[in-house]
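Thread: Newbie trying to understand structure tokens

Hi all, I'm a second-year student working on a class project, and my supervisor (Dr. K.) asked me to get a predicted structure for one chain before our next meeting. I've only ever worked with sequences, so writing a 3D structure as a token string is new to me. If someone could post the tokens and maybe explain what I'm looking at, I'd be very grateful. Here's the chain:
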Amino acid sequence: MKIHHLRNATFIIESGKNYIIVDPMLSEKGKLPPFALFRHKPRFNPTVSLPDNALHILPKVTHCLITHSHTFGLKALQHTDHLDADGELFLKQNNIPVICREDDANYLKKYGINVITSLYYWESKELSEELKGIKITAIPAKHGHGWIHKFMANGAGFYIEIQNEPSIYISGDTVYTQDVERVLTEFKPNIAVVAAGSASLDVGGSILMPLEEIIKFIQKAPNRVILNHLEALNHCPTTRNQLKLILQDKVLLSKVYIPDDGEILNFDTL
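---
Reply by user tm_fold:
Sure, no problem. This is what the structure looks like when written as tokens:
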């Protein structure tokens, strides 16, 4: 298995002939508005370009996994850091089959996206013949502390089992919850991916795990952890270097990957 980290929460899982893109935000640098104006410096998003090697890997994409896409079904409140207009266009032009949470399915279909599989929380499904040997379970994701998670609309994480490959838990946009801990301690994923940018808006509490929860996630994870959702959006203040220093101090850095944009991570077949 290979993990091709592109930018923010967008990455590609390569397994055999399958190239599964997760949460495609494919806009050019600065094409999207700031996500916070006062609490964080009001920079246009994404704050960095896609890496050069994205042009080589994107044509290989065979399927897509979307953790969350909208708030209240309103296009104006679409979570463009996980599915932007360029990501939509890519999916539609290439008729990419999409797997998502049940709550997102009708919204995505309305905009011409080819949803082939949708799941309720804790539901597990073996995927189609094309993805034979792959099983996905949808995990609850709470998109913020306090009242803000209701406004953000909660998405899903996904626990993915691939025959003869490492298992992977994509936690999605979530704070630390009992559901997250259950996956880490009971499912024991070989790889766990956590959104580590410590995002917040101009109002309300954290909408991703703050640093203390990221540390707890890493401590509870039984194996390797990938940190993403970093240094690409104006409302995510935590940097890679900050995380490296903190995790080094906590003696946790050795179990963590903090990939640069464009970096490819290789995992041995089990």
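A couple of things are worth pointing out once you decode it. The chain has seven helices and 14 strands. Helices lie at 54-57, 85-93, 102-110, 148-152, 178-187, 211-220, 240-249. Feel free to ask follow-ups in this thread.
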